[in-house]
Amino acid sequence: MFDFSVITCWIDNLLRVEWGLPDFWTLAIEFVLVGVALLTAYALIALVLIYAERKICGFFQCRIGPNRVGKWGLLQVVADMIKILTKEIIPIKRSDKFLFLMAPFFVIIGSILTFAALPFGLGLQAIDFNIGVVYILAVSSLGVIGILLAGWSSNNKYSLIGAIRSGAQLVSYELSAGLSLMVAVVLAGTMQLSEIVEAQSDLWFIFKGGIFAFVAFVIYLIAGHAETNRGPFDLAEAESELTAGYHTEYSGITFGFYYVAEYTNLFIVAAIATTMFLGGWMPLHIPGFDAFNAVMDYIPTPIWFFGKCAFCIFMALWVRWSYPRLRIDQLLKLEWKVLMPITLVNLAAVAVAVTM
Amino acid sequence: MEIKNIDIKNIPLEEFKDNEYLEQYIEELRKAGTNVVVSKLSDLLNWGHSNSVWPLTFGTSCCAIEFMCTAAARADFARFGWEVTRNSPRQADVIFVSGTIVKKMAPVLKRLYDQMAEPKYVIAMGGCASTGGPFQKSYSVVKGVNDVIPVDVYIPGCPPRPDAVLYGMMQLARKIKLENYFSTKRLEVKEIVPLADIARKAKKEKGA
Amino acid sequence: MIENLKQRVLTLCPSAKMMGEYEESKMLTIEVPNENWHELAVSLRNEKDLQFDYLQDIIGVDDEGRLGIICRLFSTTYAQTPLVVHVWTDGRECPELLSVSDVWNSANLYEREVYDYFGIRFVNHPDMRRLFLRPDWVGYPLRKDYDMESNPLVLKNEPVADFERSERLELDSNGRIKESSFQLFDDKEYVVSFGPQHPSTHGVLQLRVSLKGETVQRIDPNFGYIHRGIEKMCEEYTYPQILHLTERLDYLSAAINRHGMCLLCEKALQMEVPERAVYIRTIFDELTRIASHLLGWASMCNDMGAITAFIYGMRDREKIMDIFEETTGGRLFTSYSVIGGVSQDIHPNFQKRVKDFLPYMRKMLREYHTLFTNNPIARQRMTSAGHLNKATAIAYGVTGPSGRASGWHNDVRKIEPYAAYSKVNFNEVTDTVGGSFERYYVRLDEILESLAIIEQLVDNIPEGDYKAKTKAIIKLPEGEFFERVENARGDFGIYVNSHGDKSPYRIKFRSPSMALVSALDPIVKGEKIADLIMIGGSLDYVIPCIDR
Q1: Phi/psi of residue C438, nearest 5 degrees
Q2: Residue C487's beta-bridge partner residues?
Q3: pLDDT for A260 beyond 80
Q4: Nearest residue on chain A to B90, judged by CA atoms?
Q5: Chain C: closest CA distance from residue B103 (Å)
């Protein structure tokens, strides 16, 4: 396995020792580099996901999908990006201007902050908190503030209904999402993401943790999917009911932020599921098959990570394009009467199983 | 100064030879002239704009059904990147006036158009939207939406087939490519009068 | 039988006047003075042996300077002769009639329509405002003396108001009329306006919805955003020209509507239509019905958020469009039926294509059931909301698949078989529960029945002419003519008052969709917003048919 920290250490060494920069400047340059790298990854992932969704959705619907702009329509998303960057931003009469413009930033910052803590590969992690799981849960739910603000400040009834729905939905599903992640924490015995991945070096939790991990994985996928506000949980947008839900009044790049955040949130949910249950960047190791394990190690770790994410995302898209939307009472019933009790029992059971 | 080499991969220039409207438009642009750097940047932006036109889901009557057929599996306008239909006018780039517009609806249409963000385009789809179509004699139908909002492309038909809709969309894409994004005012081609107006004028003269 | 009914009506209302040759037209036409009209209506509706509970239509007329209404009544319990009631106003200046909206719920919208067109105000009507035209509209367009230029186009950008005022006329104890005005929604109500431009109103319909949280309290439909004045235009057009306008009413049942108008003209002219044309027309009707139900299914799924299902429905609809296109050249509007037959013979490939389509559609229906009907979310949503019982369905005149889902046997193809329907075996698909799921399911089952009808007909199309000879200029004889056909949304009725000219004096189309929308209010009360959209989809109305 190639350790990407070799590269980062080399850069650090270059700045500190070779160029002899003081600590402050070294850190400053490193922060900028990391920031640029993360933002690029962020934008690229969003673009790739938008393209992938449009193609995959076309495949599900017996259509072709974008194929005119660039080879196989690859440049379609770039064109969309150029368009959306140069669209007019309409100021809304009788809206709360400050909150209205701030709301998209909350959404985007929430997902960028989560990005920082994701382990993309061995040594490819910007910050490795010792309470990484709690950090991820905390910042990824910042987005709901953006949505609530958008709904409130737009001075639009559809937006308000959408935002309130979204608030109820996120607060509820955050619980089962968080609690199901705790199963992985219990299994690993740590909250540090890098250590959780290390703990899966012999076998991924989804296999090692037996039925408990599997249940937790499925529940996390459902709850995480609900948190991204995508169908069948897209009540906040609910195209056929609320025109565009909480972002009805947003135009140009402010809408672009929501559009991009939707896709990166999709990626983040997949990435967290991957890290916690599918072993993150850890190649598939089966105890006892040493030769097999060695071969698996030759595949670079980011490929493992993104491959597993792609699997989770494909599942999400599959559900998205074949299920009708839930109703708000069904949605809440599903969480509070089904998912939540199962998660609690599951967590208690796994805790007992681990301590025994 | 040469303005730009107009080409869309899907439609060769020859196919547009009969389109006087666009040719006059190019002439007009040539007279105005543009800076090289700005023109290159404008090219890039126009490339983006013409390839990413998101329609507003707006349909009043029969033409909306054919519009849906264009979106569906057979015609699939997703190939051109048009499938991101937005329900909120704020996020849409083009409004397909698919169907008859009546006097009660006209202020609503105007409002919808005003709610859209620049740059925005209008396609009048079908006979009713272009001229009033079969409802010319009615007391309540608007005889051509160009009375209410400026129209970029007219698609004839009652209702137009999906193929015709695709062709109209490509015409619009081509028209967007001609635009000068940085010009302060939108160029107006004064000599060109929409067909509906000519017909109406002729009718009025005949009546008088 | 007519004689019995005549005696019965005369005992109930001695001042009623019998009119015309009722025996030939198989219906009883009476004229009632305004003072007795409401009283008679109550007895007609409630008397045990009469029970005229289905008010099919109220038609406003401006006949030779007299303003009045024509009501057409049916009984769903007894197979009785339909009753046609004429009521006339005194004078044109301030015409007033007694409202029967308390007797039949469906009268509510019909009377508003008459007010809008003719300016006849209805006393005791709960909500007397314009139905189709702008509130500031000048004049009443269907009066014969209406000035066509009196309403210029408004070019201002206008916000759509959530709150509107309406009027009410009441009789006080002295028999004087008291006018009062009131606001539709209370200031404290949270009113959300769905439409006129909204993805799920299936056209340009405005629904003002009063909400409490997510729950719908009350709903007020606002029509007229696609009111094209077809009925007025028809008064200037010849009958073959009118055929084209009938297609544009309910564009999804275009061929059926056109067929209905042809039937009316043929009946009036007492013309024999060649068997071949009858068979071809029936097949086209059923294909149109399938296409319409497919689109209804697709858009209902889309309303519930299942976009893939929408695309699937549209995909299979294209197969029907191909069949249409090959024979007629048109996709949505086939312009195929003409007075006396069909415009041209079928394409040699037609029968083969249709026969290929039948098994394909059956296979696809099974796929729909796997994809959507058996989906737990969809099923739970559809079964839990939107119940309409039989009595309400009849009171609001909800016909078609939606009415049949509530247990009302109202299929015109069975009640008054026209075209080739008496020659084929098919079931009238009904259900008793009347929920959204039943409406949805009845619609899909009707596709199967339509396939069965086509299967029986397509191989037996008789040889011969496809069109009877007609005169160059078609003039209908003097008189009143009614015709009803079953279009994809229900009972599509046509009324023609001919003065012997080449164009009708007054024509009226009964829109089945209007009844569907009027029933929306009782159905959705207390349901969630999401269900409002879904119920709208399950009723499957077409707005241009309502607005005409």
Answers
A1: -65, -40
A2: C490
A3: yes
A4: A251
A5: 6
